[in-house]
Design a protein that fits this description.
The chain has 583 residues and is α+β, with helices and mostly antiparallel strands. The protein has 12 helices and 25 strands.
Length: 583
């Protein structure tokens, strides 16, 4: 292989051709693309593209080796919005592609020249939500030509807005199968290459991330463009609750007039000194930090057991994809539910305690599974399957009362009427025709619409509807909660930022029918909500009162004991480094 020669037909002293088109000059130059060959590189206002020089020799030459075409004539391109780093790597080898013809002849060639590398994102055609890093190395014998192209691309990439410069990273070393540290080590070079400063904290105990985020001052928080969780949904929830417990100023959820009997002072909820389960509060009087925040974002690099937040916001459970969403500065808004416990047991005093949920809050079956799984932590992620089987076999139901705000909108009214009509027609065991689903996706029309549902705290005059009886499970989904066990999630058409909670009430029913309901959840394209014993209501707020002595809730995978609670949803309260799933 020749290492000091030139590629055929190269003018090493050729200079780029700059064409002025309005305010955006177009830069065109012949360069060499590593492992491809000589290309005509064009740099415009949107990105860079290249066309392969057609042939080494004349097209009509039929000699066994010399008439080989380097590649097809098709154009290849990458947008600046998909480029996260550009590096000038000085003098070194650039390889020509190695190709074969019909007679099996191979032609390989390499030459030393000045080089620069463009790092970007490639999207899989078969799995569009799966992103992978791509690298393009261009070279030229003339340093000035190479430097000019490098400078132009670098300047254009730096003009892309929304990219983070500094991030606070929490790594859960024991998350999921204990891969937290290895996961971060695998994606850390992407952040280094993108020149993003990262302050990394490997958590040593449960609640450490909450303590850091709840006590961080506004001044320290404003240094960062976001906070990243390398772990599962539990670590993300811990970080979220730490920040919101000290920074969010909001009213308690609305309740029916007969819900609270002790006359708790709801006006106190407007104070920033919220009491959380951990009892932390922050009265920082430094620089302001508002919520929702236009710039500050959360990020999740999956290393957990279910990773529902990542699957719902990126469409895949891939650490590299999540890292690329972060370095490219993608942004999607996410609804957050505020869950307030008023009484721990039936005999305890009414005293508010706040938790925040980004995915799901559940009672009955869902709370029992979390409580049961705590006994088997040594099993790792498999403990959820084992605990779920044990709880299912017990088939316990609970007496409770649910009240929820009626949503007055054309869409919800028609949907409710359709559900009522379907309930009358179907038998207990019957599955009617599947309703049309509109899942959340990139540039979702539902999430980006300007027609907001009435916020729960401004819903004066709205009607409270009630459901009382024995329930196998009660769930409130903020998002679809897609995961490997439930490929469509609990509610397939739940959205990331539409301002609604999806209240799912599963009434007591025969064991076999509840199993059918659960198998529909675990089935791609299943229909778990279309049973007569299942109620599904879109709402902005609800209350819960247990008829037993005590009850256990599952709030984003964490135990939350609550005999009486209320909840509301805040539309688009936080932002994530994500785009939403590709459809």
């Amino acid at each position: 292989m020749e290492r000091n020669g030139d590629f055929s037909g190269v003018d090493n002293k050729s200079l780029p051709d700059v064409q002025i088109n309005g305010e955006n000059p177009v830069l065109t130059s012949n360069l060499f693309l590593d492992h491809v060959g000589e290309v005509v590189l064009t740099i415009n206002s949107d990105g860079l593209s290249w066309n392969l020089v057609e042939s080494i020799c004349k097209e009509q030459d039929e000699s066994p080796c010399l008439g080989i075409k380097l590649a097809s004539k098709s154009e290849t391109a990458i947008k600046f919005s998909d480029v996260y780093a550009v590096e000038f790597i000085d003098w070194g080898l650039v390889h020509e592609s190695i190709l074969g013809n019909a007679r099996g002849c191979l032609l390989g060639h390499a030459s030393e020249m000045y080089r620069f590398t463009v790092h970007g994102v490639h999207r899989s055609k078969n799995q569009p939500s799966l992103w992978a890093p791509c690298v393009y190395t261009f070279g030229h014998k003339d340093m000035d030509t190479c430097q000019l192209c490098f400078n132009r691309i670098t300047a254009s990439v730096n003009m892309v807005t929304g990219r983070p410069k500094s991030l606070l990273v929490f790594v859960h070393p024991k998350s999921g199968k204990g891969n937290g540290c290895r996961t971060w080590e695998a994606v850390a070079p992407i952040f280094s290459r993108a020149k993003i400063k990262t302050k990394v904290m490997v958590t040593q105990r449960a609640g450490q991330a909450f303590d850091v985020m709840s006590s961080i001052t506004n001044g320290d928080l404003n240094v960062y463009d976001g906070v990243i969780a390398v772990g599962g949904d539990g670590l993300f929830n811990e970080i979220l609750n730490g920040l919101l417990s000290s920074k969010l100023k909001a009213s308690y959820p609305p309740t029916p007039t007969d819900f609270l009997h002790s006359g708790a002072n709801l006006d106190d909820s407007r104070s920033p000194k919220f009491r959380t389960e951990e009892g932390c509060c922050n009265t920082d009087q430094g620089p302001s930090f508002s919520l929702p925040n236009e710039w500050f974002r959360f990020g999740v690099i999956p290393a957990g057991s279910t990773d529902a937040v990542v699957i719902c916001t990126t469409g895949t459970r891939d650490p590299v994809t999540s890292a690329l969403h972060i370095v490219l500065g993608k942004r999607v808004c996410l609804d957050i539910a505020q869950v307030v416990r008023w009484k721990t047991t039936s005999t305890s005093k009414e005293e508010p305690c706040i938790r925040y949920a980004a995915t799901f809050s559940g009672y009955g079956f869902y709370g029992d599974v979390i409580r049961e799984s705590e006994k088997y932590r040594w099993m790792g992620p498999k403990r959820y399957d084992y605990a779920g089987t044990m709880v299912f076999l017990r088939h316990r139901s609970y007496e409770a009362e649910i009240a929820y705000l009626e949503v007055k909108s054309e869409e919800s009214s028609s949907a409710s009427e359709e559900v009522l009509r379907g309930s009358r027609k179907r038998a207990l065991w019957g599955l009617p025709k599947k309703p049309e689903r509109k899942p959340c996706c990139v540039n979702c029309n539902v999430c980006t619409s300007t027609s907001h549902p009435m916020p729960a705290h401004n819903a004066e005059g709205s009607r409270w509807l009630k459901s009382k009886g024995r329930f196998l499970s009660i769930g409130a989904a903020v998002i679809s909660c897609r995961n490997e066990r439930a490929p469509d999630g609990l509610v397939a058409d739940a959205h990331l930022s539409d301002g609604f909670l999806h209240l799912i009430l599963v009434k007591d029913c025969p064991h076999a029918l509840y199993l059918w309901h659960l198998t529909q959840l675990a089935k791609k394209g299943g229909n778990p909500l279309n049973f007569a014993f299942v109620e599904h209501h879109k709402t902005t707020a609800f209350t819960f009162t247990s008829s037993g002595e005590e009850s256990v809730w599952n709030v984003d995978g964490e135990l939350f004991q609550a005999h009486k609670l209320s909840a509301q949803v805040f539309r688009g309260l936080v932002s994530l480094f994500a785009t939403g799933p590709e459809v």
